[in-house]
Every structure is written in C-alpha cells, then in structure tokens.
Write a structure and sequence with these properties.
There is one protein chain. Strands 1, 2, 3, 4, 5, 6, 7, 8 and 9 form a nine-stranded parallel β-sheet that branches. The protein has helices spanning 24-33, 51-61, 71-75, 86-106, 125-146, 166-176, 187-193, 197-204, 228-237, 254-276; strands spanning 2-8, 20-21, 38-42, 67-69, 109-111, 150-152, 181-183, 211-213, 243-246. Helices cover 46% and strands 12% of the residues. Helix 1 packs parallel to helix 2 and helix 8 runs parallel beside helix 9 (228-237). The chain is built from ten helices and nine strands. The protein starts with a strand and ends with a helix. The protein has one domain (2-276): Alpha-Beta Barrel (TIM Barrel). By secondary structure, the protein is α/β, with parallel strands linked by helices. It binds L-Erythrulose (LER) and manganese (II) ion (MN). Manganese (II) ion is lined by residues 153, 186, 212, 247.
Length: 277
Amino acid sequence: MKIGLAVATGDALPSAFVVFRDDLDRCVDRCAALGYDGVEFALRYASQVNIPLVKRRLAATGLEVPCVSSGQVFSADRLYFTHPDVAIRDAAVQRIIEMIRLAAEFGAKVNTGRVRGVIHEGESPATARQRYLACIHRCADVAEPLGVELIVEPVNRYEVNFINNCAEGLEIIREAGRSCVKLMPDIFHMNIEDASFRLAFTAAKDYISYIHVADSNRLAPGWGHMPFDEVFDILADIGYNGYLTAEILPKPDPDSAARQAAQFLHGRLEKQLCKTL
Ligand code: LER
Ligand code: MN
C-alpha cells in the first residue's frame, strides 16, 4: 500500500477537507518532504492545475497524483448529478469531464464524491438514481477510452442523503455496469454508516480502487478512536494494495496534522509487513 494526502489550492473554501491549502506544486514538495507517496488534488476546476509545473515537481520528488477529487464542485458551486435542473447536471458533468482529461495526464483516478448530489425533497430515490446514472454514463464514455477510473465514494448521512454506505455504493456501481466505475470507501464515513468494517470491505473487495482515511473525529490517524488495527488487518485479508489517502482536518495546524498522518500510516504499514514475515 502507498500513502497519500489530500490538498487544495490556497483559495479553497473552509469546507474543503484538506490539510494543505497552497500552490499545488508547493503541496507536492511539502508532501514529499513528509514521506508521502502521492498527493490528491481536491479541485473546483481542472484548470487550477498547472500541468507542466506539477509534472516537473512530481518528476523531481518521485511523487504521484493518484486521484483528482471534486468535492468543491458540490460544496462551493452546488453542481451535482441529481439536480432537478438539467443545465446544472450538464455543468456538473462538464466539470467532471475536464477533471477526467486532467487525470489522464497523471494516471490518476477521478473521485465523483459529493458531486453525486442528493435526493431532493419531494422527489423519489428512483429519480435521483436515474439522473445520477445518466451523468455517470456520460462521464464513463470519456473516462473509459482514456483509461481513467471514476470512483464512487459513499458519504455519511450528515453530508448527503444518497449513497451513504458501501452496500449502496456497490449496488449503484453494479447497476452502472461500467468497467471504469469503482468504489472508494472512506473509513470516516464507513465508521458512521457501515455496520461492520469487515463485512463491508469483504463484500466490496473486487471493486475497491482507492481509500480515504481519517480518524473517528476526522483528525489525523492516531488522534481519535478509529479501530485502525482492525482496518489494517481487514485490508491485508482482502489483499488491498492501493492508496490510503489521508483526508483530514488541518488541526491543530496543517504541518502537525500532515506529519502525524504520515508517521502513523507508515508505522502501521511497517507493522503489517512484520506480521507477514
Ligand atoms: C466528504 O466528506 C468526502 O469524504 C470527500 O472525499 C467527498 O467529496
Ligand atoms: Mn472522503
């Protein structure tokens, strides 16, 4: 497994769940200095990334961009796939398509997180599903030929009321039936929504492509009561070998949070390695 950190540009809203808010090329350097393998860009627009500049920093540091995420498209711009207004749905799809083209430059995945949207008052879950799936298919039509994965992240009920747990994520991924559409569990949300880490991870194991981690209070791992021993044992049992990216609050300050997450995750990965020897 590799470890990553979610970051954003300096103008990201307070609602973005990122540690560093800085120029993205500087974020790459800051993550490299702390021993991360990768850096996730949480974006509003694909055009926020200066591709040649970031590629130079990636080449110099050996870091990767495993994922481009889009939560701010929902939280800052209120664009999402289940919106009743077709123009808003189209705008959300266009933003994600731009992010898919950007992701192809880096071999990254695209997290469609909260851009999935919500079930609107007075509307049925079936209506939300039908709009969501139509948008996912339009994105998949672009992503598939570029070899980019679209990752669906179940998000807890206090943020959205649609696709809250891993079983619901799996169900809609199977319904979409597109090879590029995969699951992205976030253990912060799982801790609220999934009855059992083991059952949820095991049922989803063939679809999991990327994972967000945080402690129970969304602070850096090790600063809450998330059952990390159990989670790491399960990930070993299901043979997960992808990224664990810390999506955490920048508290008590960004550098301390980023350092704690890197140290904790590296420590756990080493412990896991010792168990297999
Ligand atoms: C939001 O809580 C979250 O986990 C993000 O990764 C999705 O936008
Ligand atoms: Mn997340």
